[in-house]
Amino acid sequence: MKMQPPVGEFELINTFFQSTSRRQCRDVVVHIGDDCAVLDVPMSMQLAVTTDTLVEDVHFLPNISAQDVAYKAVAVNLSDLAAMGATPRWISLALTLPKVDVTWLQAFSDSLFKILADYQVELIGGDTTSGKLSITITAQGLLPQGEGLFRHSAQVGDDIYVTGSLGDSRAGLDLLLAQRQDGEKHYTQDERYLLNRHLRPTPRLAIGQQLLGVANAAIDISDGLSGDLQHILQRSQVSAKIELDQLPLSDELLRFVKTEKSNSETALSYALGGGEDYELCFTAPPMQAKKIQQIAQKSGVSICKIGEIIATEASPTIHYSQHDHSVPDNWQAGFDHFKSFTQS
Ligand code: ADP
Ligand code: MG
Questions:
Q1: Ligand number nearest to the C-alpha of 127
Q2: 3-state SS of the chain: helix, strand, coil percent to 5?
């Protein structure tokens, strides 16, 4: 039997978002349904709070499924918490819908609660309005008092690391853009990997939490390594040396650019400017090298050293080198066009 659409806003919230069986946290004193949620914050902890919005046609294509949109809206927020070393606890959801599409809402809600359960996070409230499809999530996490990974605290002499591999997400976006033009196709195993890296980024929460007391500074890579590392440099008033040969590139990305692109530098340009990888970039003193490899081993995610923090002369700058030859500092300047519709 076809499901009847809920008649009003309250019924919609009740049907899709107010599920008592999906509660994750005992520290929620007042749940969805009152004017505010009320939360117990342990005495020894501080709150880390972040918000990210995804707007259709700006941050995601209309051909992305409700499941993928819900997953990503949560994942990008959890990635911000990961970059602070925080443990996620609660989210609120501001949802703007063009219409009440029951099938879409059910798929969205199921996928949302799935990722929330995976990370033991509870939906504690939100807002529902009508308009162009847009999803705003505010995520809150806990940090031990006085701890946290910040952008402003990189030190000269620190090594620079990244988790996982870079540039895959941009290749996945290429595939989705092509799909929009050419229609559905059968994807190869490589293509499925790249699509998954774009649609289902893994927030590096466990690594972020273990880097507390180990790393000096951190950021999550949402806009591409070159832009995001620059934020650390600006806030810390330092510069960086990056060894391009050390950037972690997946075999899938390397094969993708070989078959799809004529320019052999494309994999690097995707890694530096592609964006939406949601890996962590962090800096740590050389004495932490062993500890960092232990964290990598424990988490099953590679962590690569890609360069070091150096003193700034005129203004914070990334100095790139390749095969031990330095390349011009504006090497990546031509890649701005990769900041396509997914960047904000
Ligand atoms: P108010 O008018 O007081 O802002 P609302 O009518 O907007 O309250 O929301 C009623 C309750 O439902 C509140 O507890 C609110 O946090 C929650 N809520 C509204 N929309 C959502 C949503 N999309 N997801 C989760 N909770 C929601
Ligand atoms: Mg409201």
A1: 1
A2: 40, 25, 35
| Closest residue by Cα to residue 209 from 280, 157, 123, 276 | 280
Q: Is 9 in a helix, a strand, or coil?
A: helix
Kindly report, residue by residue over 227-276, the tens digit of the pLDDT.
999 999 999 999 999 999 999 999 999 999 988 765 555 899 999 998 99
Task: Give the global pTM.
Answer: 0.93
309 close to 158: Cβ distance less than 8 angstroms: yes
Cα–Cα distance, 235 to 36 (Å, whole number): 35
Structure tokens at 301: 């995610």
Site residues for ligand 1, CB cut-off 6 Å: 13, 17, 32-35, 93, 95, 123, 125-128
Question: 25 CA distance to ligand 1 centroid (A)?
Answer: 19
Closest ligand, as measured to the CA of 13: 1
Q: How many beta carbons lie within 10 A of that of residue 150, not counting itself?
A: 17
* Ligand nearest to the Cα of 96, by number: 1
User: In 3-state terms, what secondary structure has residue 165?
Assistant: coil
* Ligand 1 binding pocket mutation candidate from 9, 11, 13, 39 (most atoms within 8 A of CB): 13
Q: For residue 342, what pLDDT is reported?
A: 43
The DSSP 8-state label assigned to residue 207 in this structure reads H
The residue nearest atom 24 of ligand 1, judged by CA position, is 126
The closest alpha carbon to 205, from 79, 49, 38, belongs to 79
Q: Is the CB of residue 248 less than 8 Å from the CB of residue 279?
A: no
Closest ligand 1 atom to Cα of 34: 14
Residue 328: the pLDDT is 75
How is residue 54 written in tokens? 């995804």
